[in-house]
Amino acid sequence: MRRYMLRRLLQMIPVVLSVIVINFVLIQLAPGDVSVYLAGQEAGPEYIAAIRHEYGLDKPMIQQFWAYFSKVCQGDMGMSFVYGRPVIQVIAQRIPATVLLILFGIGVAAIIGTLIGAYSAKRLGSPTDTAISLLGITAYSIPVFWLGLMLILAFSVTLHWLPSSGIRSVVLEGGFAVRASDLIRHLLLPATTLGLVYVGEYIRLSRASVAEVMGEDFVTTSRAIGYDENTIFIKHALRNALLPVVTIAGLQLGFVLAGATLTETVFAWPGMGRLMFDSILARDYPLLMGSYLIMSVTVVLANLLTDIVYAYLDPRVTLG
User: Fold this and answer.
1) Is the dihedral of CA 267, 269, 272, 278 positive or negative?
2) What residue spans define the domains of the chain?
3) pLDDT tier at 314 (50, 70, 90 boundaries)?
4) For 92-313, which CATH superfamily applies?
């Protein structure tokens, strides 16, 4: 295990280096001049030139890249143009909100979707199976931003049950229980929005996987030995069905972060997705490149964790 993890961590180095180069080049090729944006549309040429010199934007691209790359290798992602603080500090403040949203949204969606899909496969061909399959396809097809707006319209504007934006109330008095309750109320709508979109995929995936496993020879042998259906379903079919679910959950982390960006924007959730959106609008290039780098490293680490969990669930898999 240690040798495998060390080898995978070493393989991450060229991947991360490639991400740094691609992010820098793509942002440099983007149209527009960030110095004009920072100085203001009515600023004179002298002031714009001073801004370009202050942030090093007047240097050749190779020199700008080498300066940025050298700082990143030392753990310094630069200073944010907008916030005037180190990029790593700005990102660190937003990561907990996104992790909380993904854990509640995607975590619950994966668990519920897997159980519903397995239940559907157990009743393959029945009206219940048809209804669940239709529900899964419908949930998978709904645009995340449209679903978020509909939930806001229903539960915030019409019923006044839940807040429509933010992570906490502006004025809040009380202890830990009050703060936790307020956080959950703000979390319910964005987490539900993100979870409902992805629960359909887990339903379809687990249904197909369980249906395939239930037709395998070892399941037939277990029935012949005398095991009851519930034992076969839980011990064999459900565990084997978790394998593709775990694989997809790890590989689609990048898509989840993209969905979280739309969700966080709709609900003004102060996470990484909303930070990236705001940095694009403000042309805060150091913050944008830092966000891309953090997300890329997260995806690579998620793939490593997926392989480890896969090997734990299936003893036939070796980390060679």
Assistant:
1) positive
2) 2-73, 92-313
3) low
4) MetI-like (1.10.3720.10)
